[in-house]
Amino acid sequence: MPWLKLLHIAALVIWCGSLLYLPALLSQALQLRKDSGFAQGTPPIPRFFYNSVATPAALVSIASGTLLFLVYGILGGWLIIKLGSVVAMVAAHGCFGWLILRVEKGHYRWIKAANWAALCVALAGILSVLIFVLAKPLDWS
């Protein structure tokens, strides 16, 4: 079953990279919308990237992580804390989706601040997942 762990790590790397790239895409889309003198549609790349890369990677990462937990019977205090960090990453992911919708609808108020806040939550989640997986404090096995 090493392929399952490889799948989990690969999907997690893609998802984490997506969470770091989405704020840049949002900022660029927001700047394009504000600079245009006419009402034009937002470039479709933020929504495409979110729907085609970030969300499938998140789903594969979470599903393969759940299978790893069930197949190998991994349990420890570090895993419970790591799952809390994954919740932070999921919250940031959802916030980026909401921000993409707001930019597409032309609601620009608080987009930059929310974009930065979601990036900070994503970074905190990514770093804490990395720390808890590598350090494995509270190992109950």
TrEMBL record:
The chain crosses the membrane at residues 6-27, 48-72, 78-101, 113-135. Catalyzes the oxidation of protoporphyrinogen IX to protoporphyrin IX. GO terms for molecular function: metal ion binding; protoporphyrinogen oxidase activity. It holds the Pfam family UPF0093. It is found in: Cell membrane. This is Protoporphyrinogen IX oxidase. GO terms for biological process: protoporphyrinogen IX biosynthetic process. Keywords: Cell membrane, Heme, Iron, Membrane, Metal-binding, Oxidoreductase, Transmembrane, Transmembrane helix. One of its GO terms (cellular component) is plasma membrane. It catalyses: protoporphyrinogen IX + 3 A = protoporphyrin IX + 3 AH2. It is a multi-pass membrane protein. Belongs to the HemJ family. The keyword Cytoplasm does not apply. Its EC number is 1.3.99.-.
